[in-house]
What we know:
Blueprint: E1 5-10, H1 14-23, E2 31-34, H2 43-55, H3 127-131, H4 141-155, H5 161-164, H6 186-195, E3 199-200, E4 203-204, E5 207-209, H7 244-252, E6 256-258, E7 261-268, E8 274-281, E9 289-299, H8 302-311, E10 331-338, E11 351-355, E12 370-375, H9 385-393, E13 396-399, E14 405-407, H10 412-423, E15 426-433, E16 442-449, E17 455-460, H11 465-485, E18 488-494
Parallel strand pairs: 1-2, 1-9, 2-6
Antiparallel strand pairs: 3-4, 5-11, 7-8, 8-9, 10-15, 10-18, 11-12, 12-15, 13-14, 16-17
Helix pairs in contact: 1-7, 9-10
Amino acid sequence: MDFNYDVIIVGGGVAGSLCAWKLSQQKNLKILIIDEGANELDENQRKEFVSTFAVATNKSQLSPYTKLESNKYAVNQDGGGDKFNLNRYYVQPGPDLFKSAGVRIVGGSTWAWRGNTPRFLPNDLKLKTTYNVAEDWPISYDDIEPYYAEAERELGVSGNDEEWDNILPGAYRSVKFPMPNIVQSYGSLQVKDKIEGLEIDGKTIKVVSTPQARNSQAYDGRSACQGNSSCIPICPSGAKYDASVHLNKAKANGVELKTSCVVTKLEAGANGNVNQVFFKDWSTTAIKEQFLTAKIVVLATHGIETPKLWLSSPTLGNKSDQVGRNLMDHLAEEVTGLFPDPVFPFRGPQSTSSIEVFRDGDFRKFCGAFRMTIGNDGWGRREPPIKSLENLLLEDLGVDDSGKKKTGILFGKELQSRLEERVTRLLRIGYSTEMLPNKDNRVTLSDEKDAFDLVRPKITVKIDDYSKKALAYGYSVAKRIFDRIEGNREVEPIAPTL
Ligand SMILES: Cc1cc2nc3c(=O)[nH]c(=O)nc-3n(C[C@H](O)[C@H](O)[C@H](O)COP(=O)(O)OP(=O)(O)OC[C@H]3O[C@@H](n4cnc5c(N)ncnc54)[C@H](O)[C@@H]3O)c2cc1C
């Protein structure tokens, strides 16, 4: 059989683009990446995303991307903002909701990601052996360590070797970070001053810099971070890594990129090898299903679309009955408060520092681990500065003599100083927990169709008690940290994932 390509890679996110770039170093291969998005990969495109975001009325995690033509056919999932916009595409019968966002454009979610890149710990891969919980992975930290090193070099990770070599038992690093860490924000150093050395349940709090795929100095043809503080949803300078880097490198090595094509199914030949990729090109007037062939097909469409596509492809089979099962997320909450003194957020990336000591320990026998981040973005989505301004303008002044509600109108110097007094002290501490594998947390096919007459994925999720305990524990630790800081805190965690 004559094939159109040696390799077709479905999905031009970071997984697909790294795969294409690596394969393209073998000069004789004819490679195609096929993606449903149609955006460009250059600086003009970045500027356009930035200006769309600048004028967006709803500054959601995905506001630069939702107006793209592709979003009609490849619906982006917005897990953030006040209004969850998750079920425009996902079908979720419950009992809990899967709330992770994703960006279905060329380059995928890395356009919008935060770029934090801490590695797994050795014990994360052997929970059963160490804590009698869940299952061990069939691979160990030793197996993946060299690949971490390679990925950090490719993405350009900034980090502090002294802090991160063996940050927790066994988490060694065989190579140095490609660049020094991103300078820790003024605010997180103020927090560090107050809480470093605090003992919580036998753990000593240590505030460290977060490794991140963001240039701390010029690297790989991209500038150092310019501190715009808009990493989610878009880095204006390109200092934060996104998959456009390796898509452009792959293209320069001869890889073809076919855009605006939603892959609808894959087909295996008689020998069981997958050779046919079916797709619909939404840029054509009479949209019809077409196909291309390859010796090897790589499916790199991430956690939801990969099982959805597989299950939509009858010839691929599912003998193990494992396709789409054990869907996991990192459940996250955050606690917000006012720091006693100004921390001057919004200068630098949205988070530069973290607390890692709760990522491992005997408590994992009954409660999930978590890592904590110290925000540098005020109260994040809970109260962006514009909301602080609105709140002050409409301040509740109680009731007048006739019992009528009074709102105050502040202006001039008083407005200025009250705004400054508040916005400069906003502090957010987040915690992201692990979630255990559960075969019933899964992606299957729903009965509902999308704009392309393709089935929408059904996502069934129930959060286990182990994860709920981790969220409760994270909250209790965050409260104790705020107690030490002695700030006025808001005690209800926000954006609960349950
Ligand atoms: C707001 C946000 C913050 C994040 N922060 C972090 C962080 O700090 N650290 C971290 O490690 N991770 C973070 N993530 C997650 C991280 O970005 C993703 O795990 C990662 O980008 C996934 O890469 P991928 O290539 O596997 O998939 P994706 O990026 O989802 O790419 C999949 C590609 O496949 C294409 N595609 C999908 N279906 C089809 C189809 N049927 N036909 C054709 N093309 C298709 C899509 O258009 C896309 O280009 C964050 C994500 C978001 C959204």
